[in-house]
Design a protein that fits this description.
159 residues; alpha+beta; 4-stranded mixed beta sheet; globular
Length: 159
């Protein structure tokens, strides 16, 4: 089975990019939104990213507008918001769908490898998080209500 880092995604500017440069790292992949009640989690995600980057950890953010229209902006607006409001230094990729017929293949794989409550595959809301080990395999899935700080011990086990 292919590793998560074998996928190609789109950068914020719409150009295709491989996740290969992230191979061998522990990843936290998150669908994000700028106008969500969970948006302040950007602070916690950035704290994890800064605390563990030197040890081989990265947060990868994928904006999504499928939940309550809470990510209405274009790539430039999203980037400005993340930088100016939360001083985000981790990669923020192009806006995607995480559910439905147009769901990004990366998220189809994440959902398949780490189903939600009662085996459900659909992502229920913004800030669903997937922890990926150095081998590119999905380790766990976390609900939007799970604060980034609460994932710290699981990240440390993988580092």
């Amino acid at each position: 089975m292919t590793a998560i880092t074998d996928f190609t995604v789109k950068n914020a500017d719409g150009t295709a990019t491989s996740l290969e440069p992230h191979r061998g790292k522990v990843l936290l992949i998150v669908n994000t939104a700028s106008k969500c009640g969970f948006t302040p989690q950007y602070d916690g995600l950035e704290a994890l990213h800064r605390d563990y980057a030197e040890r081989g950890f990265e947060v990868l953010a994928f904006p999504c507008n499928q939940f309550g229209g809470q990510e209405p902006g274009d790539a430039a607006e999203i980037a400005n918001f993340c930088t100016l409001t939360y001083d985000v230094t981790f990669p923020v990729f192009a806006k995607i769908d995480v559910n439905g017929s147009d769901a990004d293949p990366l998220f189809e794989r994440l959902k398949s490898d780490a189903p939600g409550v009662l085996g459900s595959k659909a992502i229920k809301w913004n800030f669903t998080k997937f922890l990926v080990g150095r081998d590119g395999a999905v380790v766990d899935r976390y609900a939007p209500t799970t604060k980034p700080e609460d994932i710290r011990k699981d990240i440390e086990k993988l580092l």
